[in-house]
Amino acid sequence: MLTPEQERQYNAAMDQSLRRAQANIAVVSKRRLSSEQKGIVAQVQSFMEQAQSTRKTNLTAAKSLAERADVLARDLARTVK
């Protein structure tokens, strides 16, 4: 069980991760992507969707999924620029 303060912190961290991931995906989506890069975009989007749907039942797992989406999207943005 998480305390209310921990829940607030997890939700805030998760929201930040999701915003960063979405911003990076928006940037790379304007570029010509290889099929491998398109697969990474799909994986990031999948992690983001899973994070949102898991948020109400398992906040810890949802935060982890959001962080994975953020890291993948950031790495992809670095390779595309």
Q: For the terminal residues, how far apart are their CA atoms?
A: 42 Å
Assess the beta-strand content as a share of residues: under 5%
Secondary-structure element series: HHH
Helix vs. strand class: mainly alpha
- Please work out how many helical segments DSSP would assign: 3
Give a quick account of the main beta sheet: strands, pairing sense, barrel closure.
none
State the total count of DSSP E strands: 0
Global Rg? 13 Å
**pLDDT averaged residue by residue:** 96
State the helical fraction. over 70%
Number of domains: 1
Ranges where pLDDT stays below 50 over 5 or more residues in a row are none
In one word, what is the shape?
Answer: elongated
